[in-house]
Amino acid sequence: MSLVTTPAILLRTYPYSESSRVLRFYTRALGLVGVMARGVRRDASKGRGAPGTFGEGVAVIFVRETRELQSLQEFNPRNARIGLAADLQRLAGASLAAELVLRHAGQEPHAGLYDLLSRGLDRLEATPPRALASDVLALGWSIVDLFGFGPELSACTGCGRVLDGDEMAHFDLDAGGVRCSSCSTPAGSRRIGPGARAQIARFLHGDLGAAAPTPDASAPLQGASAHLSLLDDFVTCHLLEGRRPESFRFLRPLAAADRHVPARP
Ligand SMILES: [Zn+2]
Predict the structure, then answer these.
(1) CA 218 to centroid of ligand 1, rounded, Å
(2) Directed axis angle between helix 194-204 and helix 223-238, to 10°?
(3) Which distant-in-sequence residues (6+ apart) come within 8 Å of 253 by Cβ?
(4) Cα(177) to centroid of ligand 1, in Å?
(5) Rounded to the nearest whole angstrom, what is the distance from the C-alpha of residue 150 to the centroid of ligand 1?
(6) Which of 49, 62, 158, 203 could bridge across to 183 with cysteines, CB 3.0–4.6 Å?
């Protein structure tokens, strides 16, 4: 058994018994780790407060290789991110990120993922409302990319031809990428113009909310609504085995702010 002190972000908590909770952290030293926290529910009833989801700080964890749930000695959230809990849409964006990390992160440490998550959650908490959709998209797509599921945006998934810079294409969800105008496309697939492809490419690289609008009047994939819907379908299909992330329901109102969002392809 070893005692590990590590930066940690609390992603989810479950009640376990009268007095205990199971906490799931993404940590810098241990990757994804589940711990049993004894006494936190009792502490909460005495007003000391159980740690809030998405809080980040230093966790001290007793680790025994052979067991599934480790034992939490201490967690001091220095960055409580209470601004996320206070806003349903910010919370939904954070929950989407958590859902992807809980599903795909392993127990091996990954500093890049830790930093991406930490920075992304800070950003979701502080970003102005008009940039929130872009920040949710950037965090979501960059996590998708980090796990190796990034969509193919430049070469046709049917024939391999690299799309022209101004070519209108389709997005083939099952194939996980674009399909050129010469190849047949599955029924119901979205059309996707060069502006939208470029925008998604920026999101994949985590350009948080900073993407400049590129005018393209003919592009049917427009604005936050279409971008959120594509990310929703993509993660459902490729990362969550057909289970739709709960959080998207709460992100829909962001689509109403389309005209304010610099995500127009
Ligand atoms: Zn093709």
Answers:
(1) 20
(2) 60
(3) 89
(4) 11
(5) 19
(6) 158
- Between the CA of 216 and the centroid of ligand 1 the distance, in Å, is 22
Quote the pLDDT of residue 45. 53
- Give the Å distance between the CA of 170 and the centre of ligand 1: 10
**Domains observed in the chain:** 2-80 (2.40.50.140), 100-260 (1.20.1440.120)
Of 49, 43, 117, 59, nearest to 82 by C-alpha is: 49
Q: How far is the CA of 169 from the centre of ligand 1 (A)?
A: 9
Q: Encode pLDDT of 158-206 as tens digits.
A: 999 999 999 999 999 999 999 999 999 888 899 999 999 999 999 998 7
CA 160 to ligand 1 center in whole angstroms: 6
Distance from C-alpha of 265 to C-alpha of 251, rounded to nearest angstrom:
19
pLDDT digits (tens, 9 = 90+) for 220-231: 335 888 899 999
Q: Which of 6-20, 30-44, 133-147 has the lowest mean pLDDT?
A: 30-44
Rounded distance between C-alpha atoms, residue 247 and residue 151, angstroms: 21
Contacts of 187 (CB under 8 A, 6+ apart): none
Q: Report the sign of the C-alpha dihedral through residues 183, 186, 192, 196, in that order.
A: negative
| CA 180 to ligand 1 center in whole angstroms | 4
Whole-number Å distance, alpha carbon 195 to ligand 1 midpoint, is 19
- Whole-number Å distance, alpha carbon 167 to ligand 1 midpoint, is 12
